[in-house]
Amino acid sequence: MAAVPARFRLPHPRRASARVPPYTPLQVFFLTRLAHLVALCYHARHESAAEAHGELLRHALRSTIDDCFEAGLAPELLTLLAEEAPQA
After folding, report:
1. How far apart are the first and last CA of the chain?
2. Do the Cβ atoms of 37 and 64 come closer than 8 Å?
3. pLDDT tens per residue, range 12-25
4. 0.90 surpassed by pTM
């Protein structure tokens, strides 16, 4: 099973611009869930967590990323992931 990369890089970071809301309630739900899961992944990387917990967290993150793409939130998704990526 592939792990969530420690550093996320966008191929063209300047092209990904979030659109102006209004968002549907479903889109708000997915964006809120994504932000929460990204924060949990960040904290899990810096804490000693059980491997099973990390695996479940990665699965939830991948599922939510797929949901965001399906909901038409690709620009917002990429922007959020770029903001949360650790700076080298």
Report:
1. 25
2. yes
3. 444 445 566 689 99
4. no
